[in-house]
Sequence to fold (302 residues):
Amino acid sequence: MGEPAGIGPEVALAAFEALGGRIGNHPLRLVGDAALFARHKDALIATGAGVTAVPAKPAAANAAAITQAIEIAVKACRNGQAAAMVTAPIHKAVLAAAGFGFPGHTEFLAALTGAKRAVMMLASDKLRVVPLTIHMPLARVPSLVTTASIMETATIMLEALARDFGIANPRLAVAGLNPHAGEDGVLGSEEEKIIAPAIAALKAKGHDVRGPLSADTLFHEEARKGYDAVLTMYHDQGLIPIKTLSFWDGVNVTLGLPIVRTSPDHGTAFDIAGTGKADARSMIAAITMAADIADRRAHSAR
Fold:
């Protein structure tokens, strides 16, 4: 369901109908407020808490139903009732006002599943990118860029590229933190002191990893042929390129969880909520990717 005052319920319904209520061998289910999904009651898993859905007017009173929908979907995945979950966008300010203790979906899902580290990947047929640090002020980023966190995140990425995306020998590019990847220490020392040692350690384990690379030359068409995914150091460094290249078909997929979770690569879009202008392509792409990953995991488990 996501944020009921945004376009989440609209794109969920539109995608459900465009796909005819199923994807491959998987029947689709809608999780959320009974009134929002009333026209597909036979496919509904209703939240106990209700919502007052007024387009473009998010309310803290709806927070219980929003988080409950996520919890229901996680439980269904963990007990085998569902193969994967696809979440519509949430509005973090509303949830924070209601006492929600997480910066976003990714961190909440890690807590619900007991995952040691959840990693947010944005993926499309043009680019896969992971930001090392996600929803936090830019001023905090340098202190959180550590050799250990880079190695841990990169390892999760490499495992997911092999298991979930079917890439036998994944190639990973790692961006620098500073302009021109530090310019040999002139523009910053993090590349030499923190990022390069992590890359060297990953290479010593037999992984195909290169960097630190200057982010301003990392995303053009020719450069993208040389890797399968990019690890960037902060949110906008990675999300601006993929949202420029694949705004309508990019997918947010959470790596490192014991369940499959994807989401559209867009926000609540309050400016068009309730107008009928919402585009379901990213939601359809998210459902398709969730089914593909679930099928690969099921196949590898046989």
In short: The radius of gyration is 19 Å.
